[in-house]
């Protein structure tokens, strides 16, 4: 990754649609070679942000800078960015090679260089033997690779991906995530991807930008966001979370009739105590909570338990080791360490 931290710079971008503010005063610096995922629920502003960078939507305020060049009013076709859409947008009447050649012909490249770049692009996405096929003759994963190759063949400074794997089935999606990440690292291309899939963002990105109602709710490296959520929205959108709301004295939190330990240095007053399901475990003694298993779901590599307790339902996950586990209806104790909890002031 480059030492240029502001290679792509979004400065106070705002976009309004009548009474709705889709993107609200958003600023973000993206380093050269960085892979950034804009993550969030529908309507959070992530796609509008990407469309403003691409040039398809004009911001009402703010600037877009690429390596110091102001792109804010530059037409989309003059920005030179590579773009892959969820639907791939391939020309159905053109072969794979013709689809790849289209962008180069628009840039008036000669036939020799065009053919060389097509060969390189097909090799890059492992489709050397598919140059003369039509899109309808390809699988979903192959069409996605063609769309990716077409975006990369123009040698763009930035690659923009708008839910590029949304049309793929789960297994193919996982395979393509691995291939996309490897390809992005090999090329070192600055990449901005929009997704609503938290597992996709966590597995692909150098940095995740979590958006909510047009603003950045939290951003950071995937592991940081997962382990250190800054509130209810971050903790529940990025994975599962048990949230205990109560009053803290800095050492314990009172949740209804139950007192639970909190990490040293936790804020006093009204707080949310967040514990991930995988940090909880069953305990026969020294349990912090008692409850009854109301549901047990097998998820392949782990089990998910829902447990009714005096402070509400909580979730716990256990790895699938083949060993016997408590059944539905069982009374169980639950235990976790104070360091497994994340405590946030309620007004944070």
**What is the chain-wise order of helices and strands?**
EEEHEEEHHHEHEHEEHHEEEEEEEEEE
- In CATH terms, the superfamily of the largest domain is P-loop containing nucleotide triphosphate hydrolases
Distance between the termini: 33 Å
Question: Biggest sheet, in brief?
Answer: 6 strands, mixed
| Envelope shape | globular
Order of the strands making up the biggest sheet: 6-7-8-3-9-10
Mean pLDDT: 92
Uncertain residue segments = none
The helical percent reads 10-25%
| Number of beta strands | 20
Kindly provide the name of the CATH class of the largest domain: Alpha Beta
How many separate helices?
A: 8
**What is the correct CATH architecture of the largest domain?**
3-Layer(aba) Sandwich
Structural class, from helix and strand content?
Answer: alpha+beta
Estimated share of beta-strand residues: 25-35%
Radius of gyration: 24 Å
**How many structural units, i.e. domains?**
2
CATH overall fold name of the largest domain: Rossmann fold
């Amino acid at each position: 990754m480059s030492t240029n931290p502001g290679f792509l710079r979004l400065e106070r971008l705002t976009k309004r649609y009548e009474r709705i503010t889709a993107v609200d005063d958003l600023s973000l610096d993206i380093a050269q070679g960085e892979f950034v995922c804009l993550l969030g629920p529908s309507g959070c502003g992530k796609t509008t942000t990407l469309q403003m960078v691409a040039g398809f939507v004009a911001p009402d305020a703010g600037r877009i800078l690429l390596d110091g060049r102001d792109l804010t009013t530059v037409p989309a076709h003059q920005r030179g960015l590579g773009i892959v859409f969820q639907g791939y947008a391939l020309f159905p009447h053109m072969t794979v090679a013709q689809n790849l050649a289209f962008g180069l012909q628009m840039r008036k490249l000669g036939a020799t260089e065009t053919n060389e770049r097509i060969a390189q692009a097909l090799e890059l996405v492992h489709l050397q033997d598919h140059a003369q096929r039509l899109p309808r003759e390809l699988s979903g994963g192959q069409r996605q690779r063609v769309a990716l190759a077409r975006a990369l063949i123009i040698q763009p400074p930035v690659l923009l991906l708008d839910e590029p794997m949304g049309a793929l089935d789960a297994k193919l999606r996982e395979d393509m995530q691995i291939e996309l990440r490897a390809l992005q690292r090999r090329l070192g291309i600055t990449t901005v991807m929009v997704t609503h899939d938290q597992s996709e963002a966590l597995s692909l990105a150098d940095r995740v930008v979590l958006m909510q109602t047009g603003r950045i709710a939290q951003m950071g490296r995937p592991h940081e966001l997962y382990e250190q959520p800054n509130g209810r929205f971050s903790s529940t959108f990025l994975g599962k979370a048990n949230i205990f709301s109560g009053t803290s004295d800095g050492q314990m939190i009172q949740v209804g009739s139950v007192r639970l330990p909190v990490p040293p240095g936790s804020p006093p007053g009204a707080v949310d105590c967040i514990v991930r399901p995988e940090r909880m475990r069953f305990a026969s003694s020294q349990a912090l909570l008692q409850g009854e298993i109301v549901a047990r779901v097998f998820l392949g590599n782990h089990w998910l338990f829902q447990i009714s307790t005096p402070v509400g339902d909580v979730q716990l996950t256990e790895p699938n080791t083949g060993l016997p586990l408590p059944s539905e209806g069982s009374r169980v104790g639950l235990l976790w360490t104070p360091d497994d909890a994340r405590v946030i002031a309620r007004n944070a």
